[in-house]
Automatic annotation (TrEMBL):
Pathway: Carbohydrate metabolism; tricarboxylic acid cycle; isocitrate from oxaloacetate: step 2/2. The keyword Coiled coil does not apply. Residues 557-686 form the Aconitase A/isopropylmalate dehydratase small subunit swivel domain. InterPro entries: Acnase/IPM_dHydase_lsu_aba_1/3, Acoase/IPM_deHydtase_lsu_aba, Aconitase/3IPM_dehydase_swvl, Aconitase/IPM_isomerase, Aconitase_4Fe-4S_BS, Aconitase_4Fe-4S_dom, Aconitase_dom2, Aconitase_mito-like. Its cofactor is [4Fe-4S] cluster. Belongs to the aconitase/IPM isomerase family. This is Aconitate hydratase A. Residues 35-477 form the Aconitase/3-isopropylmalate dehydratase large subunit alpha/beta/alpha domain. Its EC number is 4.2.1.3. One of its GO terms (molecular function) is aconitate hydratase activity.
Length: 755
């Protein structure tokens, strides 16, 4: 039986009435996304039609999921909210703090030793506040959610940008910062700008070497890393129905890489099969009763141009396998063209590692398709030229795959089976063959491939592909290998070809597991003590941020003008810094150390205007804070893309940065800045970015009149005394301005709870 089945049945009990009312109010047929959004309004049934991309709307999500790296800060914030228990079903998953190095058993043992303080904190705080806890080794949050909690037509939020994976089971699942999650945990509404809608019509069916991963690799190439910003991507058509549930999850998962709010598919037979296979026949039965409301209206899919803001059509029968990268997940290249492109760009041809797993591609079906290629290599006497690493998605997947002999196939190729955790996908990889200054290539089935993402090495060229394509390329050892036409030389000197991959959607013997890794909380956690040592390097109780004094902000110095791509990885790196995710002051020592200074094109090397000397960003900012001097960060387009980590907003706030002024924001990061009481502004004229000089001082001359839909005026004073006056836009509405006035959204929550 499913977790929280009563909650799911409650959602379904009012779905028909709410969808019908929304259709009446909107005055037209509804997409699936609109049905889910309108049936989750905070105030119940719809009373008005919302304008996409403009209106802020309050929603009531059904559940929350947090991974260990972000859960620390989210729960430290929740502890300040004054609540005895979380208001909606919530889970914590320990999957980020396990480094991949030697193999599952040794690596998990090491993680339990080095991060025991954090795991103990998370388990105790979960136990106290009624939160379900998944132990280290239980699996990657998004695979565990898909197996246990996701349900068609539901709405969930999670403190990880790949929460969107649950769209594979027909949810609207959205990645948020911890402060957003705290609102919902505390029983408050969750606010979101009503998304625009992108429809992707899938015709035909996949075959051969083409996989569900290739759908999103193609879409990423079309939309780019910011083309989906502020939109939900809804997939439909015969091609959508022909794919497995976990294949749909893969597509939704990587939608985060095009900036989409989320992605989703309508409920169909593959989802029903998956629910039943994962011991949730009760959810399938309940979903079947409201099936017509768990997909878009027929008129919508018949004439999508009339109902979506943008429509993309992909014929799966014609889609070719792709590799995306390096350094960005939207650089899409058909595998047949990779050799030519690699030569043109001088990408290293030899492949050192093939990595299979991550929350994007770690299902049973994924492993079977990759294993079918690996087995051919063994049977045809082909020795793998690259190292292999495998991260199963959950203990249930791992146990079942081991039972069915899949893991042994990889081990026969001398692959390393890592823990059921994120591992190299998030930089938690102690790579055995460190390359230093040497350019090198890896291929993986992950979602992101930003510079330094997997191994911390800026010289590593990472390419994203399907698990079966990663397996084939790793076996060949060459980036330019096309398994659809190229042959390999085996150990007997014979030329052989790899046959097309074969996959099994669901295990024929069913899923099995001895210990899934779940720990249920106490019904009454009032006596549970949450311990945080005063001298801990890993955990630190939070001190509320100071409220705005209501005055204009003057005399602010430029901290850094970031040049080019500046993701949350650049603002707050992961990897070894994950150990400090629960200690705001310590982790603030990585603040913006990956951002490129526009004036010298170096990282972590900025001018201190007080001394004229250059130093690391955190060190310079701490000097400004010590002297009580406010500062400004300036950035380029899509600032803050990537992970949902709110540390990228909390660290500058903690260190005294007052304003982030950029050409454009990624959605989650902009919200995180607002939640933490920061000013997140965009240039009204993006060319004004070029006016900013290294020794500039900023005066925000009309901040006292801060109001919705009203530009702010900034006076820029240059070192020679000359001035430029520019305008800045913002997207703050009245409630969000209250967050700013109170110093943070959490400060406002505490005040309201105390009233």
């Amino acid at each position: 039986m499913a977790y929280d089945i009563d909650m799911i049945k409650k959602v379904y009990s009012h779905m028909a009435d709410r969808v019908n009312k929304a259709r009446e109010v909107v005055g037209k047929p509804l997409t699936l996304s609109e049905k889910i959004l309108y049936s989750h309004l905070w105030d119940g049934e719809a009373t008005e039609a919302y304008t996409r991309g403009k209106d802020y709307v309050e929603f009531a999500p059904d559940r929350i999921a947090c991974q260990d790296a972000t859960a620390q800060m989210a729960l430290l914030q929740f502890m300040q909210a004054g609540k005895k228990q979380v208001a909606v079903p919530t889970t914590v998953h320990c999957d980020h703090l396990i480094q991949a190095k030697m193999g599952a058993a040794i690596d998990l043992q090491a993680a339990n030793k080095t991060s025991s303080e954090v795991f103990d904190f998370l388990e105790s705080v979960s136990n106290k506040y009624g939160i379900g806890f998944w132990k280290p080794g239980a699996g990657i949050i998004h695979q565990v959610v898909l197996e246990n909690y996701a349900f068609p037509g539901g709405m969930m939020i999670g403190t990880d940008s790949h929460t969107v994976n649950a769209g594979g089971l027909g949810m609207v699942a959205i990645g948020v910062g911890g402060a957003d999650a705290v609102d919902v945990m505390a029983g408050m509404a969750w606010e979101l700008k009503f998304p625009k809608l992108i429809g992707v019509k899938l015709t035909g069916s996949l075959s051969g070497w083409t996989a569900p991963k290739d759908v999103i690799l193609k879409v990423a190439g079309i939309l780019t890393v910011k083309g989906g910003t502020g939109a939900i991507i809804e997939y439909f058509g015969e091609g959508a129905r022909s794919m497995s549930c976990t294949g749909k999850g893969t597509i939704c998962n990587m939608g985060a890489e095009v900036g989409a709010t989320t992605s989703t598919f309508g409920y169909d037979d593959s989802m029903e099969r998956y629910l039943k296979a994962t011991n949730r026949a009760d959810v399938a039965e309940a979903a079947n009763a409201v099936r017509e409301h768990l997909t878009g209206d027929d008129e919508v899919y018949a004439n999508p141009e009339q109902y979506f803001d943008e429509v993309i059509e992909i014929n799966l029968s014609e889609l070719k396998p792709h590799l995306n990268g390096p350094f960005t997940p939207d650089l899409a290249t058909p595998i047949s063209e990779m050799g030519k492109k690699a030569k043109e760009h001088d990408w290293p041809i030899n492949v050192d590692w093939g990595l299979i797993g991550s929350c994007t591609n770690s299902s049973y079906e994924d492993l079977t398709r990759a294993a079918s290629i690996a087995k051919q290599a063994v049977d045809k006497k082909i020795k793998a030229k690259s190292d292999f690493g495998i991260n199963p998605g959950s203990e249930q997947i791992r146990f079942t795959a081991e039972r069915d002999g899949l893991l042994q196939i990889f081990e026969d190729l001398e692959a390393t089976i890592f823990t059921n955790a994120c591992g190299p996908c998030i930089g938690q990889w102690d790579r055995s063959d460190r390359k230093g200054e040497e350019k090198n290539t890896i291929v993986h089935s992950f979602n992101r491939n930003f510079s330094k993402r997997a191994d911390g090495n800026p010289n590593t060229h990472a390419f994203v592909g399907s698990p079966e394509m990663v397996a084939a390329i790793a076996i060949s050892g060459r980036l330019d290998f096309d398994p659809t036409r190229d042959k390999l030389m085996n150990e007997d000197g014979e030329e052989v070809m790899l046959d097309e991959p074969q996959g099994i959607e669901l295990p024929t013997k069913g899923f099995a597991v001895e210990d899934a890794g779940y720990v249920a909380p106490n019904e009454d956690g009032s006596s549970v003590e949450v311990k945080v040592a005063e001298d801990s390097e890993r955990l630190q109780l939070l001190t509320p941020f100071e409220p705005w004094d209501g005055k204009n902000l003057t005399g602010a110095k430029l901290l850094i003008k970031a040049w080019g791509k500046c993701t949350t990885d650049h603002i707050s790196m992961a990897g070894p810094w994950l150990r400090y995710r629960g200690h705001l002051d310590n982790i603030s020592n990585n603040c913006l150390i990956g951002a490129v200074n526009a004036y010298n094109k170096k990282t972590n090397f900025v001018k201190n205007q007080l001394t004229g000397e250059y130093d690391g960003v955190p060190a310079v900012q701490r000097e400004y804070k010590k002297e009580g001097i406010p500062t400004v960060v300036v950035g380029d387009h899509n600032y803050g893309e990537g992970s949902s980590r709110e540390h990228a907003a909390m660290e500058p706030r903690h260190l005294g940065v007052k304003v982030v002024l950029v050409k454009s924001f990624a959605r989650i990061h902009e919200t995180n800045l607002k939640k933490q009481g920061m000013l997140g502004l965009t240039f009204a004229n993006e060319n004004d970015y070029d006016l900013i000089q290294e020794d500039d001082t900023f005066n925000f001359v009309d901040l006292e009149n801060f109001a919705p839909d009203t530009q702010l005026t900034i006076e820029i004073v240059h070192a020679d005394g000359s001035k430029d006056t520019i305008k800045a836009n913002h997207t703050y509405n009245a409630p969000q301005i209250e967050w700013y006035k109170h110093g943070s959204a959490l400060n406002l929550i505490k005040k309201q709870n105390a009233a």
